[in-house]
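Practice problem 4.
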């Protein structure tokens, strides 16, 4: 996901940005509300994470302004204002979630995952075909082709390729694949990801002399369309 992070704390901001990047997200960090408003107006984001108390334009006013301009990007407030009435106010102004400081980073990731699943479910209802790099993946017939040549995939290979094609040009970690494709928690002893990726590459890349799913040593994989 492409995330706009508004956080003026010199320790918390970089810490959250680093953690999100390590989990495959692209993050733009801002320390004041006015700069964040300009960025949110000029660029497209998948998620906003706003601190409430920041300079120039507070997070609550920022979200109110964005919602008034019909920007419905999901938003999470990350703030020390934890009283019930403050949480209610944040949700009433259009936030999708509200996380009180101090917090565990794993909880932030879990809340982001809930929002991502909700967005994916909504998008999946509308998408019939995925197309990239000459590959066509029909989600209704469950058929795959590349350059008009039919490719026979197993159910798991299809699911794996679908996940990559829904996240083109984005770093996908091994853990993400285990969780999203196999519904498994991280297991350093299994080679299931590498085995299925090798088989998938032999089907979608090797016959065409291409390398679509590229490995990044020590980081993960990228589907380059």
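Answer key:
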């Amino acid at each position: 996901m492409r995330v706009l992070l508004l956080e003026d704390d010199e320790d918390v901001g970089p810490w959250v940005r680093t953690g999100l990047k390590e989990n495959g997200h692209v993050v733009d960090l801002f320390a004041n509300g006015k700069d964040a408003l300009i960025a949110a107006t000029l660029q497209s984001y998948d998620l906003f994470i706003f601190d409430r108390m920041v300079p120039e334009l507070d997070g609550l006013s920022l979200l109110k302004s964005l919602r008034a301009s019909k920007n419905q990007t999901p938003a999470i407030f990350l703030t020390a204002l934890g009283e019930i009435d403050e949480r209610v106010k944040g949700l009433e102004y259009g936030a999708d979630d509200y996380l009180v400081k101090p917090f565990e980073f794993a909880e932030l990731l879990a809340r982001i995952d809930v929002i991502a699943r909700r967005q994916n479910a909504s998008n999946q209802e509308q998408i019939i075909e995925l197309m990239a790099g000459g590959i066509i993946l029909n989600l209704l017939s469950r058929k795959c082709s590349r350059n008009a040549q039919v490719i026979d995939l197993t159910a798991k290979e299809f699911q794996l390729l679908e996940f990559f094609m829904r996240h083109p040009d984005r770093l996908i970690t091994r853990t993400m694949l285990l969780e999203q494709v196999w519904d498994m928690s991280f297991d350093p002893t299994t080679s299931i990801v590498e085995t299925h990726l090798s088989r998938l590459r032999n089907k979608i890349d090797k016959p065409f002399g291409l390398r679509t799913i590229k490995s990044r040593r020590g980081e993960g994989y990228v589907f380059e369309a």
